[in-house]
């Protein structure tokens, strides 16, 4: 296991860590990654400047529409934008100037302080997939998600040393009323995990409920000064912000909490079919959303998000985990760094309906683009199948394992006297063997990250052990992880206050299906 | 034969190309890739210099042993190395100076000139996996490879638009005598494919047979002036060159053909368990092998190879497709570019025994490192399972499809007025739809690469179509591709000369099993 914990704060006490490591070598993940390798920069300065010019042109000439939120229009008017009806046009440079007040990195606090995450800069945070209405288990059996599934995925996230964040809507609990399910979701994150989490974004009052629950955990004053909850808000691409969305963005900013601003562009539908144009549009949309947070509360944390996809020529369906969005994400990373904002980009995407070879060739290409583009907060790191529509138990395990591999990958190749192995070359002669050398003995522990899902046995032993495929092993692992799960301890007073708050909120309104 | 590959011509006549494209949109692959994105450079100048200093120290102080080849020792002595017994020590700078005469890029000619490949520089050539004794089909059923399997894999390679090179020992034809099987292997490449290929390296006379067969195809004079065959030769790591290997290296160089020089380092066994040390050793070994080609024939083409792997702590088994070799390969690429030699590095590696999720998460991580590190000749691009021991029909199809995705990935994001889509933003207003815009209609063809193995249908349609996994679809595809295969035409005189040569060679010696 890489010695990531050295530079990043270790989780829990040294004694608890030793005990955990002895019982299960997996339980020693760091709270987040501090990368040792630079992002992958594929685009020339000249072409970046051309895309930025197109972004400025879209903002100034095409403009963005803001529906059903007069306060937002008023904020733009005061800030110097041109407002005609609900169409807003931004003079060149205006948004960049406003964005200068947003922090380039910030801490999102977890209720277990050892699990607080640093978002921005050289840091990388993995969070589970978000938003699927369906759930799959045992391969491709699909059904609607429930609150029990939701709790299971929170527990599975908490059990993985390679995820850092509990996420948000890990699946839609479709068995609960739409206007109340956010209360149960936020509670599940707080009770079954002690990591940082996300709140509701489907309506302003649900966002405020989520933030209020965070206040019960962290204290109102602490929340006003620190980020403890994120809200992931989508632009209604192309170039349209709905009033529900802008009110939610402003609710998070007003509370000094971080909105994640994300366009949703299926190339050829909600944006141009050409990648450079889709990037320009998405960046324009996101810049406006991020700037809005600063008008609502100067200095509030905000995350610059992006999302790219492609389309099947044969069927017109959206496709995911394909090469064009992977390359496009690398460019988005370059552009985001020039804005100095924390980045959310890509994730583990696939169109496959099974946790099979297609799922992981697409997922790995997509996930590598996320870490290589320099994304700081990687939502959708684990669980998606079926073109974002389904959360799969088996895929969750496979993806979390890939997140583990990326911990080691992002450390790169270390260079010091020990790593260069000069002593080994003095000891082992040409044609010799390093296995018993003192350098190998001193270094083999921790030299290589080891998957808990991969089968690395010789063929004969693999056959002897049943000849299982990776999805079957993943099925065994999530069932075991759920059986082993214990909720992290929580203060009884906080627990009761949350339960009481939820009961009052639920009693205050009838169930609704929207 | 004219060097048609200079301008990367399309395959076959325009008419044949149009016909092929109409019948099957897959048949339009380019003869090789010219990358539009730079390699991924993860290591600082300072650390690269430290590794280079360790390489020089290994070469000067530890030295390399050269067994059973007095002529090689004599070449080193004349060139100024210190030779004591069979241990050779290289003064700092000596090998770099010798390597200056090796070409930084060259053309390997194919018998169909449209398929000639350019190796080096910004070019990327995909070749199938090499050397497995076993073959798998229908998932994980493993058996020894045969010449029929060999021919099948050559045909499957030829059928894929996303591979560029027919490769070499695509599997071991274990049903043929060891001392004669090279004749049937080279013949299979020539008859069932019209792409560039590789010859035997198991003994000097087998290398010479292979080259002689190439002379029958291309003409002796042409072969003396142009590269038409590659030989992939392994160092006996650590730091030992066997006489069989150096004689084969010299045989290829003597004929002005390109040896591919490759260390085989399993970290902790044939090299240090630390990646920086393993890289230093591998580069030292490869530099010596490449330099030897220049002493044999100054200016002969040669490919600088590298191979990194890791080890399972739990079992001591080698592991493949893991993160440390992926990161290490990126560093090897940086070092190779400083030497100015064409690079072979990484490939599609996995320890999985099935074409499943494990196979493709490992394979994709490994294969992305190959293209991102700037490798020019990517051997092992398609087919491996089982830690290099097995060639899988289904995995071959899945991997070749990934090679297709990488064609698009390596183009990066293009930037011009059309790609920036300025006209589209004038046409489509905020909240509108791009689907029917004139920009989308003008650009959707070719906007996105499309997999022929992935299922991108909606869930319901996927169920209706049988709910197949990717491995099952791959099984259907390779069977269809073999059924559809037709050998490319060959001159009857060349055909007869090859058959006659093989008959004479086979008659000249008894069968042997070594």
Explain this structure.
2 copies of one chain form a homodimer. By secondary structure, chain A is of the alpha/beta class. Helices cover 44% and strands 13% of the residues of chain A. The first copy, chain A, is built from 19 helices and 21 strands. Chain A has helices at residues 14-23, 45-62, 70-79, 94-99, 147-159, 181-192, 204-218, 220-225, 243-254, 275-296, 323-339, 357-372, 393-409, 417-420, 422-427, 438-443, 459-464, 470-484, 492-507, and strands at residues 33-34, 64-66, 82-84, 87-89, 105-108, 117-120, 123-126, 134-137, 141-144, 197-198, 229-234, 240-241, 258-262, 265-266, 302-306, 308-311, 318-319, 343-345, 377-378, 384-385, 390-392. In chain A, the strands form 6 sheets. In chain A, strands 10-11-13-15-18 form a 5-stranded parallel β-sheet. In chain A, helix 12 runs parallel beside helix 13 (393-409) and helix 13 (393-409) crosses helix 18 (470-484). Chain A starts with 13 loop residues before the first helix and ends in a 7-residue tail after the last helix. Chains A and B meet through helix 2, helix 10, helix 11, helix 12 and helix 13 of A and helix 2, helix 10, helix 11, helix 12 and helix 13 of B.
